[in-house]
Fold this protein.
Amino acid sequence: MERSARPSSSTVMSEPSPLKPEASSSSSPFPVLSTGSSFSNLYNRFSTWRKSLDLPNPGTIENLTKEVKSTHLTNFFFDGGRADLTKALSANPAFQVTHSFALGSQTQPPSYNFGAVFANNNVFLQGGMDNEGNLNLRANQGWTENNVTKVQGQISSQVGHSMLQFEHDYQGRDYTLNFKAINPHPADWSGIYIGGILQSITKNLALGVESVYQRPDPTMSEVGLSYLAKYTSSDKNWIATAQAQSGGVLQATYWQKLSEKIEVAADLQMIAGATRRDAIATLGAKYDLRMSTFRAQLDSTGKVSALLEQRFAPTFSFMVSGEIDHFKNAAKVGVGVMIESSSLTPEEMGMTPADLIACYMHIALLIPPVVMPAHALHLSGH
Amino acid sequence: MPSEETKERIIKAVDFGRTILHYGWIPFIIYVGYTRSNPQPSLIKCVALLLSSRLLY
């Protein structure tokens, strides 16, 4: 009784009141508060009803097409030669550094990238610096199970190439909220601001809306809306999504898990604007074998591509990729190795094969003047 | 609206912060990684790592 008479109409009650709403409002000793408590009862009834529907959380807006992206090889494709040397320094919390080399690509200049990753249960920190001095960074901080703040960006010495994005995700019982600020400048609050919600409507269907507020400078601003829909089958074996953006950009995807090892995905992107009409369809499949992953993809621009990642040992894997563009009569081939070394004993320190390779590649490719100190350090470490 | 002078100051502070982030982010991760790692690696590796990241700048 006291609980319902408390003026707590504005606060969110986590558990529904066990009392009947009629009984509690009529027995309230304060007539002024009765409207408040009836409001809170209404709220409690609504939240009880909502809880009884038992709708699942629809996942984040960013991960709407996650399954499709991990099945297609668009995000994994590379050409030319590539070597990634990873050194795991600690397992829990995870801490590792990576040296990545890329050479001979048709589209990218040769590059070297040094990366560091640190992660524990709540914090994820990642940074990478390439040979031109461009930094890319990523940091996630989980406050509670449902609240995550993310920062990601790219910082370059060239003017106008830097980007910094702040993001907050809240995952409720049956909905997800997301807020993003891209390049916000505290002097005049220019930048791009995005807010979105994704709400489960039934056990399978989730609908969402995302609004983009662009403000390149204080004198002009523009608002755009995009709509999202996601249908997940009851056994979670297939997912269909659709997105419509204000500029007439439509995207529809379909993903299905055919068996434990095989996933297929289709993606259709359309632009139906006043000045431009275009569409791309992509079909892809992914095979997860015991020691390897194979991805194959075909799209409507005439490209056929495939990527094989073969793991020979827990610390060594090998990748081959290829793409044929039938319309342009062009082809790309890529070969890569990934070597991982974990030196958690001091004896191994500084003298693992990967380290030696990294050291020699450093010496050969980058910095002839520091041969001696780097070498001396490694020897003294041993 | 802040005055022109304040704006100027904010712009300078943002530029300074960006520079700190640019050159300090990877050393910061390595510092955090080394102080929180279990077991904690020896200092000489830390110095070697910091050097190898420094070489890029």
Residues 1-31, 345-353, 355-382 of chain A have pLDDT under 50 and may be disordered. The two ends of chain A are 73 Å apart (CA to CA).
